[in-house]
Amino acid sequence: MSKTEYTVEDFMLDPEFKKWVLAPDEETRAYWEVFLEKHPEKYENMKLARRALINLSRNLGEISESRIEGIWTEIDTFINEPEKEQAERRTVSISSESTLRRFADRQTRTGYKASYQFYRVAGILVFAFSLGILCNFLLEYPEEEFVEVPLVYEEHSVPPGVKSTLRLQDGSRVILNSGSTLRYVKNFEADKRELFLIGEAFFEVAKDSLRPFVVKTGPVSTKALGTSFNITAYHDEPLDVALLTGKVNVALGFEKSQEIILKPGEGLNVSIGEQAHSKHQIEEEKVLAWTRKTILFEQTPIGEAIRVLENWYGVQIEVLNRPERGVLLSGKFVDQTLEGVLEGLSYSARFRFKLDEDRVTLKFDMSS
Amino acid sequence: MQIVPKLNTLPQETSPEELWLGLKSGDKHAFEQLYRKYVKVLFQLGTSITGDAEFVEDCIQELFIDLWKYKNNIKPTDNVKLYLFRSLSNRINKEKKKAFKGNEKQRQAAANFPSRLESVEVKIVNAQREEAVQKKLASILKKLPIRQNEVIQYLFFENLSYEETSKLMGINLRSVYTLAWKALSTLRKSIISVAAYLITLPLW
């Protein structure tokens, strides 16, 4: 359930909300302030929930010392004489015949009782079963929320040349870019949603403040509550986290660990090798281009551009006469063939290209 | 009756888990310590749920007698308090069901035992508590159906998690949520009526 549909009761039952009201820390404070700003219509409900929580009281009975002693004496008396009591309960038979008869009696009786019990149990089971089915139809709660499942990992790998949209069990949406792998615990655990990413993916996280959504990319983990963000974490390339909406917390697990909070419109560039990072402003169009079948190069180094193209089209690209000064490529291609893209790039960057099934050769003009 | 050594002759306070193991191996002294350690909180919980002190005392007594009787079969636990809570809860619910079937014994009986008002723990200064609302909520809580009352006790006063509460009550997580929701709904409505009362008061 989204918090925007919360009733007073739901707020009171949300552990994060409870924490905010009763024992707040910086994080919960920030979270709920932002929430309230975004959803002013929830003010009345939140106010009442807070008031109810703070005043929630019970009458506590106090037991007197004499009663504590009194009860203990009775317990003590009993446990010191259990043998006697048990002996009294047992009836000792005089003859073997009566023992056998009583045994037979008991068997028939339990037999009747058992079968009666059987119908009762069966009836209850049938009732419970049909009720269960009925509930399944009537309730639109996401079933996974409360189901306990052993840890089973689910892995999605997208080969180069293919993109894939996933809907996770918690309602979050993930678009996986070509050549990427996403691994996570099936149905997630009860207290967190943890995913491991290699490559690039765009996340639209379903709100669930009870289970933070954490994407792990090597030493860097990006934690979100309910947001949309993009992560690029290909091998041997700087890692990039771009936040579109909401709030994320990026933890850098370097020698000196660090936490960075991103605001919407901010991006974080992390160079894992150098253990360095820098913030920058993002352009939504650029970040999301790949999810809209668009290849966008803006002064992109040729190495990165080749990785993009190799992934996108599932080809191997070989570069001949690579200029020593390096080449920066620019261009925007919407739903284009590889040939179209290369042709577009070839004029400004001055190379010729040859396509041979899944092998591509770029040859730069020596003169440039 | 055997002479049991006084508590204060013990060098150190033994952990509940050790006492539990002691009970399992038939150590009567450990058993008594368990009783003395938990009788107060069990009584508090029991009376908060049922409001019937005598009944709760009986339940506690039987609970401990059974513990001793079946000590060989008790399972090791890492949370003795939760285990005892669960045992008490089971017993209360079982007895109440019985009482409901037979001659209906009202739980308002023996309501005049010493008690005090306890509110949910708040770790902020200046929490602006309102006494009228506190009293009202406590009295409404007492009138809730037992299971609804219980779930509020565990989640808000004993500060147990949903998982712990579900284990303790032997119901699934969704039922915990549903029960708590119903209880809070009743409580919430009572606040509004208090507020209305406070507003109308000055007009008299």
* Ends distance of chain B: 66 Å
Distance between the termini of chain A: 59 Å
Overall mean pLDDT of chain A stands at 80
Low-confidence stretches of chain A: 85-94, 141-149
Low-confidence stretches of chain B: 1-11, 102-110
Q: Which class of secondary structure composition applies to the elements of chain A?
A: alpha+beta
CATH first level of the largest domain in chain B:
Mainly Alpha
Biggest sheet statistics of chain A: 13 strands, mixed
CATH architecture of the largest domain in chain A: Sandwich
Main sheet overview of chain B: none
- Tally of contiguous helical segments of chain B: 8
Secondary structure class of chain B reads mainly alpha
* Helix run count of chain A: 10
Number of strands of chain A: 19
Order of helices and strands of chain B: HHHHEHHHH
CATH topology grouping of the largest domain in chain B: Rna Polymerase Sigma Factor, Chain: A
Can you give the mean pLDDT of chain B? 80
Total DSSP E strands of chain B: 1
Helix content of chain A: 25-40%
